[in-house]
Description:
Blueprint: H1 13-16, E1 21-26, E2 30-37, E3 46-48, E4 52-58, E5 62-66, E6 71-74, H2 75-78, E7 87-90, E8 93-100, E9 106-113
Antiparallel strand pairs: 1-2, 2-9, 3-8, 4-7, 4-9, 5-6, 5-8
Amino acid sequence: MDDPSAWPAELDALSAAPAQHRLVLENERVRVLDTRIAPGERTPVHTHQWPAAHHVMSWSAFVRRDDKGVVLLDTRTAGVTAVQGAVLWGEALGPHTLENVGTAPLHIVSIEIKPAK
Length: 117
């Protein structure tokens, strides 16, 4: 994985994909994002600098692609699914897009864990 601190600040989810990411809380230890992606919607290229616990509010199939368009994950073929209320762990994510290819809204609340200083 690339060094997350080397990713351009302008690719941070809040800057690069503000239509889908809303800041709920931020302090020196965590950042909480409310992410909503409608059916058929695709985010601009963005990053997530820190690992996170993801609380699933609603689930939909999605495709994650890198900044060159290469498919990194297609939940339909990978067998990845989650139910409302599930909590998943995810590592930091380099430049990527996410496309909701399902029929329901994808709504995730992510608690990003910042490194100790």
